[in-house]
Amino acid sequence: MTDIAAGPRRLSSTETVRAGLGRRKRHQIMLQGLGLAAISFAFLMLATLVGSLVMTGHKAFTQTHITLDVYVDPAEIPAAGLPRGGFRDVMTAALAERIPGVESRAELRALGAILSNGAQFMLRDRIVADPSLIGQTITMRVPVSDPYDQLKKGLIDRETPEAFRRVKDQEIAWFDTLMAQGAITEPFNWALFRNADSRFPELAGLKGALIGSAWALLVCFLISFPLGIGAAIYLEEFAPKNRVSDLIEVNINNLAAVPSVVFGLLALAVFLGWFGMQRSAPFVGGLTLALMTMPTIIIATRAALKAVPPSIREAALGVGASRHQVVFGHVLPLAMPGILTGTIIGLAQALGETAPLLLIGMNAFITSAPSTPFDSATALPTQIFIWADSPERGFVSRTSAAILVLLTFLVVMNALAIFLRNRFERKW
Amino acid sequence: MYDNPLTKRTAVTHEVKISARGVNVFYGENRAIKDVDVDIEDKTVTAFIGPSGCGKSTFLRCLNRMNDTIDICSVKGLITLDGEDIYAPSIDPVQLRAKVGMVFQKPNPFPKSIYDNVGYGPKIHGMAQSRADLDEIVERALRRAALWEEVKDRLSSPGTGLSGGQQQRLCIARAVATEPEVLLMDEPCSALDPIATAQVEELIDELREQYSVVIVTHSMQQAARVSQKTAFFHLGHLVEFGETGQIFTNPHDPRTESYITGRIG
Amino acid sequence: MTSLAFSLLFALAIAGYVWNLMAARSIRQSGARMHSLSGFHGMYSFLLAVVPVMVLILVWQVLKGPVIDRMVLGGLPPGTLDGVNAGAVQLILSEIKSLAGGRTFGTPEDWKIEAAERLVGLRQTAAYSLVGLVAVVAGGLVLFARLRVGAEFRARHRVERIVSGLMIFCASVAIFVTLGIAGSLMFETYRFFERVPLTEFLFGLNWEPQIPLREDQIAAEGAFGWIPVFLGTIVITVVALFIAIPVGLLSGIYLNEFAPRRMRAVAKPILEILAGVPTVVYGFFAILTVAPAIRSAGAALGIDIAPNTALAAGSVMGIMLIPFISSFADDALSAVPQALRDGALGLGATRAEMMTTVLFPAAIPGIVGGILLAVSRAIGETMIVVMAAGLIAKMTINPLDSVTTVTVQIVTLLIGDTSFDNPKTLAAFALGMMLFLVTLVINVFALRIVRKYREAYD
């Protein structure tokens, strides 16, 4: 051991350390700075995402309306002819009352374009419901068409040369007159939730998509929840540790990572192709989503079951309960909050899933809400896809608005999951 | 070393290396160390003993500011190394830890080769100018840890592949490679079998020639075997501090006596 | 009618439950020692009726359609279908069906009306016989269960065995799904390769799946070489990883070691939100914000950038993957034992040195597994590229150019067209097969690495 003691003791070691200190500190600050920059970038992106959606989307939550005194001219709308009649002409005439000096047919047609295409049908529905209105003057508030909605919201630049503008100078003048008369209002856009899809942005709503998504999620839940829990209980509590169980386990983990579009191909080939199920139906959509959600539920349930301490099982087994009685009577109830949390998160994922629904045709153009899960329908994310693809300017803000609605649902679901987790989760 | 009965150990006093005055340590609201004063001498093995949870490990970790890594932990009072306040703002914990090395309860070799484990400290501190330099440092540290003969042929194999006792000596070699002046050991033998423990204890005794060694132990026999000075901690207080022989044969405080005779702890 | 069958089944099963429960109770009251609790006798009856009859109803539903179709076609006047090809037969069938549904177009032939009437009749017969069958079978099973009630009967064992069987079925659904995916993809892919040679698909450098509408059109053959499509996928994936890996790893490292506690508490949920945003939203973000921004940036620099540049789709996909990689990195770093952190700090390493020289190398297997899973996600990601990438396959690795991907082609080839007999639709399945195989290999590999890594530190 003497040779060690003889080794030169480096008295300079402290100085060496001190010399390098500045450089090492700088490295540390650099790494920290990079990390902070990275995370700020992620936040900035999220902020940009939400910001740009809110910027474009908030405008779709109001809709420009025009209030008109409509004389229901019996000459145009004879009671005998219902539900047919010259509703459009009556509406245009009511509009022309407000703008003096519009005479020619061409001008009248241009003036009539201020009204939404749906306005005539609103009048028709009202008169069909109460034919005694014929011959009277009624007050109606109807949506204006998309270009004028954009004009009101300032999305059409009045400085643009007329040739490049969707509304002409004359039309702007008319609209300004109506504004000055106080006929134009911009109330909350209830149509966004009360109407189904439409080719006209001012009439298009999410009702069909919301109901379609609700049906699909219900089917998805009813199938994936029992299947997922059953599979998880078997694998966690009963399965012998052998190759088959291993195979199933590997399988489930892989299924959770299979691209969603592949599930769409499966649904297309098997559900639609072989079983001949109804195309575009929320039932098929829900079935497909169930296959994708099941692995998530299985994994969450197994984690929740694992978290129940063995002492509970041993205590129940010790008083003579069978393994089934232990699992269903004691372990499962204790694991339920965790299972529900996982299920809600899985359903939230399913709600946002788009690709498989496209392949089974849930991107069809359907103007009525489905009344059963077997009717053709769209879902919220596919509706977003359809609107994002539509050329009309008005659909841009509606797409953003639909996304905001979807994100609201997701936030609520996730908040519910977090609440459940915090409220009922026990630490053993 | 064992043929030297406790009572006859000569009380040679060395210069004071570390001195603590009025040290209090808080974990949030909870005061874990209460008004501790102690002087730790150079070229001496000082043992901290006491029942579990008495604060001996906490105090040890104050000496190289390892407690800094715990957010809620705060240290009050004065601790000096060679007369310099180690909690002064001008002192960098990095620099301090190069001077005050530490060996932990469980052997914790990095998942790297034996060579890289030992060379880790010198490399990050820039102590080696060349590969040959580093080779020399590594060999010297391994020799000092009495591990060289066992591993010299497999320096590039992973340090995690060694036996428990070898791993702990590797960690000691890793600590001495940075040429520290003080070596802190937090129950270094608690995870080892008796044979490995004996080897490490022998090593500690040799290390005393060059370093000031502070060892926390729950084994009174170990404290008696390896240390010259012993400090007894109880409920965060430093109850008694003195020559190991005196503490074990003639304690002044009744609490020390109770502990040594096995009535508390 | 199906709902009537279901209601009948449940009514019978519940009646069986109550019946057995009563029977068991009365035996117990007479003083006999029962093997099982009365509830188990009831449960036995319920499960014995519900499980097999439920299977019966489902099988019936699946088989009903095809069987009735065949019977209707078989009942047509002899010679009607001679020399008519399969597509036309389907057309006739659907015409008959819409007649049966009460929708008449033009003036149908008499034999079609006759067939429609027969179809309606058959459907009614099928519905009645299903209800009858359910009543008989379920009633029989309930009766059988009642007869077995007795002191010696091990109802609990029976019930548990049925429940175990159900659970095993649930667990094996995962295998059925995988087999279903593999089977359907293989079947359709096989049909594709009957029309297009395998070598052309695997090694062809042209992807032009347009099938002419008329036979005399020029360029009657589509080209089905998947290489340019795959190349496009790779280009977009690389762009995505170029953003996601550094940003994700650095944020993971920062959150794990350097972020103040309060920041961590805020940042982790925000990253989770970022991870939970549906991909269709990212797709819209790409066309609404990112692509115009990239194009105007390119214009300012004088670079010509394609409208559907791979850069837009790729970078948005990268943003989507950031939280994925960062949480994997964070988890992997957290799994490194505290002792190693202490060891490095105790030797005087700065926290940055501890991170780069000890923690990060120790966590690499876990991180690599996470990155591989991210790669597989990027390859399989659909909506972002469907909305923001191009449709034309090009042999280019220039990210400023417009490229197409495997998933884009699958979706565009299949939207609105489901006749399974032209190469265009079948090509989508061939691409799906390749996608499935590629991601499967990556996933298996990645999951194995991650699992090994977890075991190493547990």
TrEMBL record, chain A:
Keyword Acyltransferase set for record: no
User: Which CDD domains does its entry note?
Assistant: TM_PBP2
Q: Name one GO molecular function term.
A: phosphate transmembrane transporter activity
One protein family per Pfam: DUF3333
Q: Which InterPro entries match?
A: DUF3333, MetI-like, MetI-like_sf, Phosphate_PstA
Instruction: Provide the transmembrane region boundaries.
Output: 33-55, 214-235, 255-277, 283-305, 326-348, 401-420
Q: Where does the record place the ABC transmembrane type-1 domain?
A: 210-417
Q: Which GO terms describe its cellular component?
A: plasma membrane
Q: Where in the cell is it found?
A: Cell inner membrane; Cell membrane
Which UniProt keyword terms apply here? Cell membrane, Membrane, Transmembrane, Transmembrane helix, Transport
For the biological process aspect of GO, one term held by this record is:
phosphate ion transmembrane transport
Q: Provide the family line.
A: Belongs to the binding-protein-dependent transport system permease family. CysTW subfamily.
Family annotation (NCBIfam families): 3a0107s02c
| Stated name of the protein | Phosphate transport system permease protein PstA
User: What's the encoding gene here?
Assistant: pstA
Automatic annotation (TrEMBL), chain B:
Please give the GO cellular component terms listed in this UniProt entry: membrane
**Record's PROSITE patterns?**
ABC_TRANSPORTER_1, ABC_TRANSPORTER_2
At the top level, the lineage of the source is Bacteria
Q: Which UniProt keywords apply?
A: ATP-binding, Nucleotide-binding, Phosphate transport, Transport
Domain ABC transporter, which positions?
18-260
Q: Which GO terms describe its molecular function?
A: ATP binding; ATP hydrolysis activity; phosphate transmembrane transporter activity
BP terms from Gene Ontology:
phosphate ion transmembrane transport
CDD domains xref list = ABC_PstB_phosphate_transporter
Q: Which InterPro entries match?
A: AAA+_ATPase, ABC_transporter-like_ATP-bd, ABC_transporter-like_CS, P-loop_NTPase, PstB-like
Residues annotated as signal peptide: none
Please give the name of this protein: Phosphate ABC transporter ATP-binding protein
From TrEMBL, chain C:
Cellular component terms, GO, for this chain's entry?
plasma membrane
- Chain ranges of the ABC transmembrane type-1 domain: 230-446
Q: Where are the transmembrane segments?
A: 6-23, 44-63, 126-145, 166-187, 223-249, 270-293, 305-325, 358-379, 426-450
Location, primary (coarse class)? membrane
Localized where?
A: Cell inner membrane; Cell membrane
Q: How does it sit in the membrane?
A: Multi-pass membrane protein
Name the Gene Ontology biological process terms. Answer: phosphate ion transport
* PROSITE patterns tied to this protein: ABC_TM1 (PS50928)
At the top level, the lineage of the source is Bacteria
Sequence similarity: Belongs to the binding-protein-dependent transport system permease family. CysTW subfamily.
Describe its function: Part of the binding-protein-dependent transport system for phosphate; probably responsible for the translocation of the substrate across the membrane.
Name of the protein: Phosphate transport system permease protein
